[in-house]
Amino acid sequence: MRFIILATHRTGSTLLESYLNCHTNTPCSSELFQAKVSHPLSVPRYIEWQRFYRKSISRYISKFVPAGGGFKLMYGQLSKFPDLQRYLIKHKILIIHIQRENLLRRYLSYHLAKKTDSWSSNTSEYKLSPIKLNPENILNEIREMQKKVNHHRHFQKTNPYLDITYEDLSEFPDRTLSRIWNTLNEKPVQLKTELVKQNPYPLVKMISNYQEIETALKGTSYEWMMID
Predict the structure, then answer these.
(1) pTM of the predicted model, to two decimals?
(2) Which of 45, 127, 129, 222 has the lowest CB atom count within 10 Å?
């Protein structure tokens, strides 16, 4: 194993996973350390495998993760398995930390996905589904997410590390993947994906109480996030 995608929900990790899989030398599995089974994978998740075989994370990774590849890991999954963090540090695994600069859009995207139970899409037929956000909580939610992002940058001190943003991945996919592949000493290949952006609309059309949210963020360091 050479890398992991470290992320939280709605930051482009699935898109990045699909791009990495375009290269035969950087196969990327999905969330192998997910606590619940929501869809089948080509390999068993660690929580199921360990319960049955009672063997270590190291044995699991050696058996199921390709030598040149990696997998996607969410913040919460990392905290549940301390042995995994020790493994990543010990073996100097490349941490590809993908984040979303516009945390308001991440927050909105997360709640839209929960509302519609749609976490990815391969159709261009967009369905506008406005949602009401809580103006009293929005600022604290954004601040807490920023703290989580900053906390997980601690890998900069221990591992090979790349900061990737959703915004760069969406707008400059070839440049972003070239940066990753260059770090892994791989030649870039042509990108393709069936995934499409789920929420392409302006914020004013997706947030039913847009003016309330605009007021809540006005005068803060997050005010710019209202600008499309």
Answers:
(1) 0.90
(2) 127
